[in-house]
Write a structure and sequence with these properties.
The complex is a heterotrimer of chains A (402), B (854) and C (82). With 402 residues, chain A is of the alpha+beta class. Helices cover 27% and strands 26% of the residues of chain A. Chain A has a domain of 140 residues: D-Amino Acid Oxidase, Chain A, domain 2, CATH 3.30.9.10. In chain B, strands 1, 2, 3, 4, 5 and 14 form a 6-stranded mixed beta sheet that branches. Classes of the chains: A alpha+beta (402), B alpha+beta (854), C mainly beta (82). Chains A and B meet through helix 3, strand 13, helix 7 and strand 17 of A and strand 16, helix 4, helix 5, strand 17 and helix 7 of B. Strand 17 of chain A pairs antiparallel with strand 17 of chain B, so a sheet runs across the interface.
């Protein structure tokens, strides 16, 4: 019997109503998490999540499943640490197998400047609740015996930060658990439903037009990943978002022997082993803004080459598949959450390459905002107006890779 | 006999075959594997690529050839397995060559034709893994070869031409013996089940077109011919069986997930993991689609097709990729010879320390020292609109700068954030030299060129970062050393002038990053080694020694000088870093002006400040150390060092400010107390940096009159390359058109001329700079000797082979020809003659290129 | 992405990795307030799902800019622009 077949999650599909208290556009992790926390923490269940494809079919189904909080600024460390903690309790809370595995994350430094940056990372992490420490090459080799500390003679490893909170989880299962949990409490999730416009009453957004009819809403939340600009345009809103492809690839599955997540800032590369035993790798964004999810050759060529530089055993493993997601990138590599200045319209966007890890905290906090009509302190720094207020959150720990 | 799985490699010599049924062991993950040589890549350009060498493929290839196309056929049967049709279009194939493989990257100019045929639909009923099952194609091969198939039957609903008994009915299961050999097949005709004993069952369920390569091509136009263009049959799903052998997923599993609401094909795939194994759905996809459509859903399109189409290793797919090459100055070998520990910093190899950091430090503070700052960004701008361009890109006033003087400048982006800092030096009203940080020069060039072009400015721009070396002579004895070196006159503080130093023509900038008397000597890079060695020899009795980057960072920190990118963030405004003095609002419009005004009007949140530990003697905290005001986190340290001359730790750091815009007067860092101070810790009045210098007196004292032999640029940096004599010319396109004519492989004064852009040419060989300047009739032209290039002539055939391995773009066919682009990921200029090719590359990267050319 | 871009200075197609991307910002005409326009130009993006005009800097060869029309839906270069 294949232990990885999903045998418990049961979806309850329904027919759309003509209106809901809350309409969430986007059936990915953030949209479904918001619905889940609205239902479970606030008893708000007159909620619809509208997904134009299948749930989790966007970035939530394409990411490399990294969960971490080892960011570079206090606001980010606090926020992602909350998410790390929520993830740790999510399997128990949803009673669903999420393949959550706290395996630690090594972030390698190859230069003296890089080593200083990793010490600085450990410092700010520790000050704000994330568990990260600086480690020397001997410790790195102990944690990850497969590593070539000489970097094939080109990129020697001089040190690293080790983030023991680093983890992975099966992305699909996170999406399904949240969807099911919301549905079980009465939330409606509608697949194959595309939002074609926003309905306004004066200046206030009061609903959405879809290809299945108009749906009224007390509040509309945009949680649409790389396509947020289209929806925001409908609200007359300009966003500091640019959509870029991010690629990844995976090997066949092998015995579970690769102990941790591994990342290199200089080489812009990261790798982990999935619960099924596949080696999962990624690198940096494509340079051009694009909505095409075609996989490219230069990416996998270069990513594989960097991988082999650090982990020579990967050379003989077989590639299985490569794919692409579309990342909504913000100017300061930090997310954008909360009010928009347009009544009735909220956003959770700018999740770039850091969205999956934030799903529980993003959902929890947006749910609180919707339920209480007040922006929670944890996400207040991530407001859309921070660019106008000269309060951007430039974060060197936000890598633009994972 | 096993049936042919769609992912199987042809059995060529060297291929090892292992039997591995579903549920077989998972291969181990090895621990200790050494590095191995890279898999070779070959780049091929053609008009048409045909994938598949069967009858349809051969026909299509012949048709294309008859139209005069250069055709490449890739046939898996011949060991050429296409792993993907990528954007480009680019067709990548793994080519088996004996026991090893190479990777072939084909770029067709016109079309891609997919002729990969169709594969037989596999049975999935219980017993489908038994030995004795064949596809119709395999059975025909065996019959034709005279192999005895024993008692054989054809089962399945798809008609065949085989001369064997056909048994009707739906498949229920196959039965086998203890050894896994087929003994019978069970079939169902309406209500009757019957058991047919047999040794061989030929299973004919129809075909699935192998069109993944076409489907993954997206909007790249791909022609599909032959069986690959078939619609594809949808086999009926049996009630039992393992329908995804790769992942071991049963019909029960499939029914289970669909019943629980996973109705979309993609959701079924993700919930069962069917189709995610090595055959990527070749076996199971027809069944899932059939299953879902039987339950009333519209027929859903197949799984998204993605590379890779055939299994290959990471080593094979990495083929053709290169490490990012880190450039080095011409003094790199000198530093290593002197025992320097080299580090990558700011995108260059730099000497971090020569082993005795204390001695390096004190040589600067109390004697004289040299530092290789050749990595600094350097640019020449000239033209009627030069000043206008500079006023635009800098928030500092440039018009008030006097000829022969320099000014510190910030460069802002449109958000008002600091991009870079450096100097502007005015040679005349229409000619300027700019400097940038080492890491910022590449961006600065594209930024400045974009604005110049956008405004249609009449300027000549030349990036001289690698062309010029720069050596900083610094310390209280610096002027004395330079007097010995034969300098006539030294520039005053914040001024510059041209002179000879040790017989080498230098642009001498007096500035001070270290806080001591300092002269930065900019010179053609080919003379760096001579200049460096001569200075060190001259200064031996003065205790001269070079200092590295680590020491330099400490020295500048004592003066409170910022390092952009370390002390500044992506969003540092001049106000935050207390550099508002470098921004003038009462000057012509500049980039970021409105943003500066806008951000000035919102409350300040934090500042970059100086910090001193007290009591003195406490150890300097690390970069990144947290700063606290009471128990409130208020910021962190960006630069930190123990100051030998001050006897205490000094830092720069970010600190939150109050409503009045002021930081707390004291903070705590790592348990120690620190005072917030103005960052100029050492010699705040700059008396040492601005010390008066009486060169004449020094020359007299040092018995100047010493002569130096002419400096000839040193030998090439590698055994196979030679150092080139060259000239760079930047002028108007019209002037170059007149001087060179059309075509980008030209000649000037009898020397080969590479027309690298409409307004720029690189001349190889000895020419007369003065007569060129005169003949161009452009008073703003830039005509400069270029000593930092290396060249290598390679026999045409060998060059073609090297380029086939290392160059991903098509080279010109005419001769002579000039082309430029990256070769092995390194910017190279190529000059093609009938029987040979010259590779021209910057000395900063020649070592890497030589290694990669092999 | 089309693997290559045509650089007319270098007179040939070159790999995309030889170039650096440059967006051409467009402030909507509907914005009239200068401060808003400045903010928009600095931070906001059209993020077009369709045909865009953009610039690429050829850092592997000529060190000059080219202008390109590209359809971001399928990442296809439509034509180089001079």
């Amino acid at each position: 019997m294949n232990e990885y077949v999903e045998r418990k999650v049961t979806f309850t599909w329904s027919e759309p109503r003509s209106s809901y208290d809350v309409v969430i556009v986007g059936g990915g992790g953030h949209g479904l998490a918001t619905a889940y926390y609205l239902a479970t923490r606030h008893g708000i269940t007159n909620v619809a999540v509208l997904e134009r494809g299948y749930i989790g079919g966007g970035n939530s189904g394409r990411n490399t499943t990294v969960i971490r909080s080892n960011y570079g600024i206090p606001e980010a460390v606090r926020f992602y640490q909350r998410s790390v903690e929520l993830y740790e309790g999510l399997e128990e809370e949803t009673d669903r197998f999420l393949m959550h595995d706290k395996k630690g994350l090594l972030w390698l430094a190859h230069t003296e400047m890089g080593a200083r940056a990793e010490r600085a990372r450990a410092e700010v992490n520790t000050a704000f609740g994330a568990k990260t420490e600086y480690v020397e090459p001997a410790q790195i080799k102990e944690i990850c015996p497969q590593i070539d500390l000489t970097g094939n003679g080109k990129w020697p490893v001089v040190g690293a930060s080790y983030h023991s909170g680093g983890a992975t989880a099966r992305h699909d299962r996170v999406v399904w658990a949240l969807a099911e949990g919301a549905m079980n409490r009465g939330v409606h999730v509608h697949q194959r439903t595309t939002v074609t416009g926003l309905v306004k009453d004066g200046e206030r957004v009061v609903g959405v037009a879809t290809d299945r009819g108009t749906i009224g809403a007390g509040t509309v939340l945009s949680a649409t990943g790389g396509w947020v600009t289209r929806l925001a345009e409908m609200a007359g809103l300009r966003l500091p978002i640019r959509s870029h492809p991010l690629q990844a690839f995976v090997t066949n599955h092998y015995e579970l022997q690769f102990p941790s997540l591994l990342s290199s800032g200089d080489l812009l590369f990261y790798v982990s082993q999935t619960a099924r035993g596949e080696m999962l790798m990624g690198a940096e964004l494509d340079p051009q803004p694009s909505y095409s999810t075609r996989a490219g050759h230069p990416f996998i060529q270069s990513c594989a080459q960097r991988a082999i530089t650090l982990l020579p055993f990967l050379r003989d493993l077989r590639v299985l598949r490569q794919w692409t997601g579309i990342c909504d990138m913000s100017p300061d590599y930090s997310p954008i959450m909360g009010t928009t200045g347009v009544d009735g319209f909220l956003v959770t966007t700018g999740w770039g390459t850091w969205g999956f890890k934030a799903i529980p905290a993003g959902g929890e906090q947006m749910a609180e905002l919707i339920a209480t009509d007040e922006t929670p302190e944890l996400i207040a720094p991530f407001s859309l107006d921070r660019f106008a207020r000269d309060r951007t959150l430039a974060d060197r720990g936000s890598s633009g890779t994972h | 006999m096993a049936y042919v799985r769609t992912c199987q490699r042809p059995a060529l010599p060297g291929v090892v075959v292992e039997s591995q049924h579903q549920g077989g062991t998972t291969p181990p993950l090895p621990l200790d594997i050494p590095q191995k040589p890279a898999v070779e890549t070959r780049h091929r350009f053609c008009d048409t690529v045909v994938i598949g060498g069967g009858s349809a493929g051969t026909e299509a290839a012949d048709a294309a050839r008859s139209e005069g196309h250069d055709v490449v056929v890739l046939d898996a049967g011949a060991g050429e397995e296409v792993i993907g049709v990528y954007p480009g279009p680019l067709v990548v194939a793994r080519v088996q060559e004996g026991p090893s493989s190479t990777t072939l990257q084909v770029q067709p100019r016109e079309q891609v034709i997919v002729a990969t045929g169709a594969s037989a639909i596999q049975p999935i009923v219980p017993g489908s893994e038994l030995r004795g099952l064949l596809t119709p194609v395999a059975a025909q091969h065996m019959l034709d070869s005279g192999i005895d198939l024993g008692r054989s039957v054809v089962v399945g609903t798809h008609p065949t031409q085989l001369d064997l008994p056909h048994e009707s009915g739906e498949l229920v299961r196959f039965e086998g013996d203890a050894r896994g050999q087929l003994v019978a097949v069970v079939l169902q005709d309406s209500d009757n089940q019957r058991r047919v004993e047999c040794d061989t069952a030929v299973v004919s369920l129809g075909f699935t077109p192998r069109n993944a390569l076409a489907r993954m091509a997206g909007d790249t136009p791909v022609q599909v011919v032959g069986d690959a263009a078939l619609e594809g049959d949808l086999p009926k799903c049996p009630p039992d069986g393992i329908f995804c052998p790769c992942s071991g997923v049963t019909m029960d599993d499939l029914e289970g997930v669909v019943e629980r609401g996973f109705e979309e094909l993609e959701l079924v795939k993700r919930a069962t993991l069917a189709g995610t194994g090595t055959c990527q759905g070749s076996t199971c996809l027809p069944y899932i689609r059939s299953f879902l459509s039987e339950r009333g859903a519209d027929l859903q399109p197949p799984f998204t097709a993605r590379p890779v189409n055939r299994q290959l290793t990471l080593g094979e797919i990495a083929s053709g990729a290169y490490d990012h090459a880190t450039p080095r100055t011409e003094l790199d070998a000198e530093h290593r010879r002197l025992g320097a520990h080299m580090e990558r910093a700011g995108g260059w190899w730099r000497p971090w320390t020569y082993g005795e950091p204390d001695a390096e430090y004190w040589a600067v503070r109390s004697g004289v020292s040299v530092c290789d700052v050749g990595t600094l960004g350097k640019m020449q701008i000239s033209g009627p609109d030069a000043l206008r361009l500079l006023e635009w890109i800098y928030p500092t006033k440039v018009a008030t700068l006097k000829t022969g003087r320099t000014r510190y400048v910030l460069m802002l982006d449109e958000r008002g954030y600091v991009l870079d800092d450096g100097l502007v030096a005015k040679e005349s009203e229409t000619r300027y030299t700019l400097t940038f940080t080492s890491g910022g020069s590449s961006f600065a060039e594209l930024w400045i060129r974009d604005w110049a072009e956008g405004f249609g400015l009449d300027v000549r721009i030349l990036n001289q970062t690698a062309s010029l070396g720069a050596i900083n002579v610094t310390g209280p004895l610096a002027a004395r050393l330079l007097a010995r070196a034969g300098v006539e006159k030294l520039p005053g503080f914040a001024a510059f002038r041209r002179d000879t130093v040790c017989g080498i023509d230098c642009q001498i900038f007096r500035l001070s990053f270290t806080g001591e008397l300092s002269y930065e000597l900019h010179h053609p890079a080919g003379h760096s080694v001579n200049l460096w060695r001569r200075l060190i020899e001259l200064g031996e009795d003065l205790g001269i020694r070079p200092h590295g980057l680590d020491t330099l960072l400490g020295l500048r920190l004592e003066k409170g000088h910022i390092v952009v990118g370390q002390d500044t963030d992506y969003d540092s405004t001049p106000r935050r870093i207390e550099h508002e003095w470098a921004v003038k609002l009462d000057k012509p419009d500049f980039v970021g002006r409105e943003a500066v005004v806008r951000t000035n009007s919102v409350p300040l949140d934090r500042k970059l400040v100086g910090l001193e530990l007290e009591p003195a003697g406490a150890e300097a905290p690390i970069q990144g150390a947290s700063l606290y005001d009471g128990d409130r986190y208020v910021g962190y340290v960006t630069s930190s060092a123990d100051s030998p001359v001050l006897g205490k730790a000094v830092m720069l750091g970010w600190v939150d400010v109050d409503d009045a815009g002021e930081p707390p007067p004291n903070v705590r860092v790592g348990g120690a107390a620190a005072r917030v101070v103005a960052p100029s810790f050492y010699d705040p009045d700059n008396l040492r940096a601005r010390a008066k210098v009486d060169v004449a007196a020094l020359r007299e004292a040092e018995a100047a009159g010493a002569t130096f032999s002419a400096s000839v640029p040193g030998p090439a940096l590698t055994p196979t390359f030679e150092r080139l004599e060259a000239t760079r010319i930047v002028t108007t396109p019209e002037a170059l058109d007149e001087a060179l004519g059309e075509g980008n492989a030209a000649s000037l004064q009898g020397a080969r001329a590479m027309r690298t852009a409409a307004d720029e040419v690189l001349v190889l060989g000895k020419v007369d700079l003065i007569s060129i300047r005169e003949s161009l009739r452009d008073e703003h032209c830039i005509v400069l000797e270029e000593t930092s290039l290396a060249g290598r002539w390679i026999d045409a055939e060998l060059a073609a082979e090297m380029l086939e391995r290392t160059c991903a773009w098509e080279r010109p066919g005419e001769r002579p020809a000039f082309a430029q682009g990256t070769v092995a990921d390194i910017p190279v200029k190529l000059w093609f003659e009938d029987d040979r090719v010259q590779f021209v590359v910057s000395n900063a990267l020649v070592l890497d290129l030589e290694e990669r050319l092999g | 992405m089309s693997l290559t871009l045509y650089c007319h200075h270098c007179r040939g197609k070159r790999p995309l990795s030889d170039f650096v991307y440059g967006e051409i910002p467009k402030v909507p005409d509907s914005l009239t307030d200068p401060v808003e326009r400045d903010l928009d130009r600095g931070f906001m993006h059209d993020n077009v799902e369709g045909v865009v005009v953009e610039r690429w800097f050829c850092h592997g060869g000529c060190h000059r800019w080219i202008t390109v029309r590209r359809d971001t839906r399928n990442d296809t270069v439509l034509s180089p622009e001079t």
